[in-house]
Amino acid sequence: MYLYLVIALSLLVVADGLYFHIAETEKKCFIEEIPDETMVMGNYKVQLYDPNTKGYGDYPNIGMHVEVKDPDDKVILSKLYTAEGRFTFTSHTPGEHLICLYSNSSAWFSGAQLRVHLDIQAGEHTQDYQQIASKDKLNELQLRVRQLLDQVEQITKEQAYQRYREDRFRQTSESTNSRVLWWSLGQTVVLVCTGLWQMRHLKGFFEAKKLV
Amino acid sequence: MGFACVHLLIALLHVGLVASIELTFELPDNQHQCFYEDIKAGVDVVLEFQVVTGGQYDVDMTLEDPAGRQLYKDIKKQYDSYSFKTETPGTYKACFSNEFSTFSHKIVYMDWQIGDQDNLKKAITPGIHAMSQLENSAVAIGERLRMVDDYQTHHRLREATGRKRAEQLNERVMYWSLGQTAVVVLIGIAQVILLRSFFSDKRPRY
Question: Per the UniProt record, which residue ranges are transmembrane (chain A) (predicted)?
């Protein structure tokens, strides 16, 4: 029973925190640059501006679309959630993931302001250590070591991702380099060809006109 | 068991107050974006931001306390970090503005850390027992790893800036070379036509 209470509480507490405002039909996107096989967890809560109370109140009828695109622009998550909830996904390709949030509201009350509480965590930050501790019966030190392991694992993943990025970066730079090289050669050829053609053409033209 | 659970509960309440959020968002031209956070008094807060791409890599940032006083204001900054201790409880507001820019679309990274980073320490040790040496070093390792993580993030963002620039350069080189080829050929043809017209037009008049 305590465990449930703990989980319920953690859910409650996390949803608050950072918030921002969007217009009712506006779409807001965030970029999460992550290595592959990394879990991303987002908690959100939407509130609607109420002109009567001049405040933001819970409005359970609002739904929230969450759409996640991977670096290849493939949609990996697209769901309609309720006004408050949690979405999770695990990356399969390393790179920039685009997380977009927009409400499902139609024209009835469009123009109103929405307040979105959002918390996005990636990698080992998604782990709920309290839950792990109570589930696996770990003592403090064991839990601590578990957390360190997760941290190191995430750093290793990140480093692997860095190598991947560096590789791509180098490919781009080498491509630029070779393009510049070939272009300079190509430009010389084009110039010489144009010049030769001009000479030949004009020579023929002047001869035909009996100017020379 | 019940006692331990109560501790866990207290700990969890602590965890709720400790938060760090990293967000990377797009900031279109002529727009601004504000973020709000409710913070209690006497909490250490670190706000870090960096422009990843776009224009001159600069953005205006302002930070306001609940009374509307400006704690931090800087214009056209590429990256910065600001730490402060909250004096009054309430809603703190951070705004990023790209209003000075008329065409460059920007991507901005923001890291807002509130309270003690080491939430596990608070979470499982509500100050009732002394830590052993092993635990102390585990805490120290955790702290260092967090620093490693921070540096890595910084590095990743710098790399992203460099990479995007390089990709842009690559693309520009290609378009430029295609464009220039067309220009050289067109000018070559135009020169000939012009030269011909000089001689062709005059001839019949004599």
Answer: 180-199
Say which of A176, A195, A197 has its CB closest to residue B169.
Answer: A176
CB A89 within 8 A of CB A76: yes
Q: Which helix (H) or strand (E) element contains residue B179?
A: helix B133-205
> What would the pLDDT profile of B8-23 be if each residue is shown by its tens digit?
444 443 343 346 788 8
The answer on A115 and A27 residing in a single domain is yes
What residue spans define the domains of chain B? 2-161
What's the ipTM? 0.74
**B47: closest CA of chain A, how far (Å):** 12
Q: Are residues A109 and A67 in the same domain?
A: yes
Six-digit token string for A79: 């769901």
A100 and A205, same domain (yes or no): no
**A140 contacts B124 by C-beta, under 8 angstroms:** yes
> Rounded to whole angstroms, how far apart are CA atoms A18 and A122?
16
> Please, where are the H alpha helices in chain A?
2-15, 129-136, 140-209
CA distance A32 to A99: 7
The reply to whether CATH 2.60.120.380 applies to domain B2-161 is yes
| Domain enclosing residue A26, as ranges | 13-126
**CB pair distance less than 8 Å for B21 and A180:** no
Residue A1 lies in a domain: no
Instruction: Clarify whether residues A83 and A164 are in a common domain.
Output: no
Q: Determine the Cα–Cα distance for residues A137 and A97; give it in Å rounded to an integer.
A: 35
pLDDT tens, B39-64?
888 888 888 899 988 888 888 999 98
> What are the chain A neighbours of B37 within 8 Å (beta carbons)?
17-19
